[in-house]
């Protein structure tokens, strides 16, 4: 399985000069824990950073900074860990674990943002597969009862 089929194509984005307040409002509105900071070139969005809800709490609120004067460009993590849309799921998981990140912006071969893959997505995928396996066991047991009794 590749990230092309697994990533979420609805990505919250912001620009470097957007305020942290605006990013927080976006996160609240869409129930998300991050925004990807992008630069637009020729109408295409290229990821250059990420700001998470945790970044806002630790670096802005806990330091009592004025949330409407700090920009996402001031706060964003510039060492962005990216994944290619053709990357295999297991490679993406390995990368997340090695780099200690819970979210991977997904880009195409040109580096254009096409989606995001998060640990939450992975947990949902695993839960879905486990539910299918549990259903298989239940079905097998039901068939066995039908034919053996």
From TrEMBL:
UniProt cross-references to Gene3D superfamilies, sorted A to Z: CBS-domain
Keyword Repeat: yes
UniProt superkingdom: Bacteria
InterPro entries documented for this protein: CBS_dom, CBS_dom_sf, CBS_domain-containing
Source organism of the structure: Methylomicrobium album BG8
Keyword Repeat: yes
Protein name (database record): Putative transcriptional regulator, contains C-terminal CBS domains
UniProt cross-references to Pfam families, sorted A to Z: CBS
Boundaries of every CBS domain copy: 7-67, 76-132
Keywords (A to Z) from UniProt: CBS domain, Repeat
């Amino acid at each position: 399985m590749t990230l092309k089929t697994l990533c979420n194509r609805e990505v919250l984005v912001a620009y470097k000069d957007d305020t942290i307040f605006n990013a927080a409002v976006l996160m609240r509105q869409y129930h998300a824990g991050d925004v990807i900071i992008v630069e637009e070139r020729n109408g295409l969005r290229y990821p250059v950073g990420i700001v998470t809800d945790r970044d806002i709490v630790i670096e802005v609120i806990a330091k009592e900074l004025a949330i409407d004067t700090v920009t996402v460009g001031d706060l964003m993590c510039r060492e962005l860990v990216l994944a290619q849309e053709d990357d295999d799921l297991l490679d993406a998981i390995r990368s997340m674990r090695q780099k200690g990140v819970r979210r991977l912006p997904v880009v195409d071969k040109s580096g254009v943002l096409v989606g995001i893959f998060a640990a939450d997505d992975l947990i949902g995928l695993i839960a879905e597969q486990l539910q299918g396996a549990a259903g298989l066991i239940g079905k097998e047991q039901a068939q066995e009862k039908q034919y053996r009794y």
